[in-house]
Write a structure and sequence with these properties.
The protein is mainly alpha-helical. 81% of the residues lie in helices and 0% in strands. The N terminus and C terminus are likely disordered.
């Protein structure tokens, strides 16, 4: 692969990019929904079999591998997606640097498994660290090929590979869990998924590493990579602080409950807006020479995401007390309130989730560092007051940090991309008011439902009430947003070459 083949063609206009992005979104949403339904069913079975502890062990192990992830993987390969021109030297240098560092870190983790596990206060983690280290090495080979596929906006290929990987690995996990493998059911299923994913990505990218390693190429990528590494470092600290604090006061079980709460809210967010967020940096990077197109695109995306996220997250929060024990058993009831707290974050996620991707897409790698730094300071300041409340307190800590940094991230996006901060904070207000009204209607109806009804019937009645109430309120106060969504769908379908600058 020569330099010319790594460069976007000069006739790749804004229209072409948006059309390709829309094609990818169709594939990615289909994958998100299919994998979520499949994953929810399998998780409900596995959670009943395994309980919280194995999930807590894996969550604590991720503290160690998350630290390694600061220096390898996406921190090194994202620059390949953002950069306008690439040469063989850029690709080969990144591949061998990423592979070499991954092997080095995996050896260190495998040799120091017991001391590392004791350091985080979870001796049981030591058993799985060597195996997970090997998986990290296997997974590293898909870093550069995967970045190339995303750079070309060929996410449809990635989706197909991920679907096969998830189906096979989840099936393996279920079988192993039923056979009594405990936490190893999670580890071995991860191994199956890693092998399938790596093989598929390498084949689809049609790229093989050479030996055109160059010091100049390293230097050219270093500035962006340096800030990316710092971003991942701060992101790791930001993510690790709550889990580490919780492990100190509650052990693996408490961490497992928090992980479950995060998985539920994360799954819903992924279902409704994950594909948008996944391609945001690449699309913005390709369109950054046309601010107007970026703004138009964000307006239409936010009109859709707020209309979907607000009622979905608040509605799920309402039914969570009945749904959680019904699906995964009474052993997980302590996760209900943390789940509800995380779901309320959907109010911010509908727009704020895109901010760092937008900033990095326009080449601003400094602002995410500021956002994360302030978030870490807030975590440290609030932790002493919330730690005594256990899992609920830590969930509240994460939520407060997220909401408090939201205005700052909006202002930084305004500065870097020219997209109004006030608009970011208020976009979709009709959907928010309608969702809040929906919550009131569901709460009222629930009070009058017969107590002898089965939980399934009560949940069905609450969901039906929510759908009717939200639809009616949007008809009354959200007419403008509904019209914007319709216009947005037309814009996406019929977008034509109206941008003067080719990308």
């Amino acid at each position: 692969m020569g330099q010319a083949s790594c460069r976007f063609p000069s006739d790749m206009t804004a229209s072409f990019i948006i059309r390709r992005a829309m094609r990818n979104l169709v594939w990615m949403f289909a994958h998100s929904w299919g994998s979520a339904i499949f994953g929810l069913v399998s998780f409900a079975i596995m959670a009943r079999i395994l309980g919280p502890e194995p999930y807590g062990i894996m969550a604590l192990a991720s503290l160690i591998f998350g630290l390694v992830g600061i220096f390898v993987g996406p921190p090194l390969t994202e620059s390949l997606q953002q950069r306008e021109d690439l040469s063989d030297a850029h690709l080969d240098t990144t591949f061998w640097l990423n592979s070499g560092l991954t092997v080095l870190f995996s050896i260190i983790i495998a040799l120091l498994a017991k001391p590392l596990a004791n350091l985080i206060g979870a001796p049981a983690v030591a058993d799985v660290l060597p195996a997970l280290s090997l998986l990290m090495v296997l997974g590293s080979v898909e870093g550069v090929p995967g970045a190339l596929l995303q750079r070309r906006l060929e996410n449809d290929k990635v989706v197909l590979i991920e679907t096969v990987s998830e189906v096979v690995s989840t099936g393996a996990a279920l079988v192993l869990a039923i056979l009594g493998f405990g936490v190893w059911a999670l580890v071995l299923s991860m191994a199956v998924g890693t092998v399938i994913s790596a093989a598929g990505i390498i084949y689809a990218a049609k790229w093989r590493p050479g030996f055109a390693v160059s010091r100049d190429a390293f230097r050219e990528l270093f500035a962006f990579n340096r800030d990316t590494v710092l971003t991942y470092l701060l992101g790791y600290i930001d993510d690790a602080i709550p889990r580490f604090l919780l492990s100190m006061i509650g052990g693996e079980r408490a961490v497992g409950l928090l992980a479950m709460a995060g998985n539920v809210s994360g799954m819903l967010t992924e279902l409704l807006m994950g594909p948008f967020n996944e391609i945001a940096m690449n699309v913005v990077a390709r369109l950054q020479s046309s601010r107007k197109t970026v703004h138009d695109l964000l307006d239409r995306v936010f009109a859709m995401t707020t209309a979907a996220i607000y009622p979905a997250t608040l509605g799920l929060a309402m039914v969570a007390p009945l749904l959680v024990p019904l699906v995964v058993g009474d052993e997980w009831v302590a996760a209900v309130l943390p789940i509800q707290i995380f779901l309320v974050l959907g109010i911010r996620d509908a727009t704020g989730n895109f901010n760092i991707a937008i900033l990095r897409g326009v080449g601003d790698s400094k602002s995410p560092l500021l956002i994360l730094s302030i978030g870490i300071v807030l975590l440290g300041a609030m932790a002493p007051f919330l730690m005594p409340y256990g899992v609920v307190g830590i969930a509240a800590l994460i939520a407060l940090r997220t909401f408090l940094t939201w205005p700052l991230s909006a202002l930084l996006v305004q500065r870097a991309a020219g997209y109004s901060a006030l608009h970011q904070l208020t976009v979709g207000w009709q959907a928010l008011l309608s969702a809040i009204g929906m919550v009131g209607a569901v709460w009222t109806v629930q009070k009058f439902l017969p107590s002898e009804w089965f939980d399934v019937a009560i949940i069905a009645a609450m969901v039906a009430t929510g759908i009717v109430a939200y639809g009616a309120l949007m008809f009354l106060i959200g007419v403008r947003q509904v019209r914007e969504i319709r216009e947005g769908m037309t814009w996406f379908r019929n977008h034509h070459d109206s941008v003067e600058d080719a990308i």
